[in-house]
Amino acid sequence: MYNDTLNGSTEKRSAELPDAVGPIVQLQEKLYVPVKEYPDFNFVGRIL
Questions:
Q1: Which of 18, 23, 33, 46 is most buried, taking the most CB atoms under 10 A from its CB?
Q2: DSSP assignment, residue 27?
């Protein structure tokens, strides 16, 4: 794919990936964010 770009080809091809195996897993975790104690702190920027 990268070599085609160097050769002047602008054709885009989709990636050929194998089918997924197993259940879909979604990970999540809740965080306590003390906004009332620290109203001026950028928690979202620190977490991301």
A1: 33
A2: -
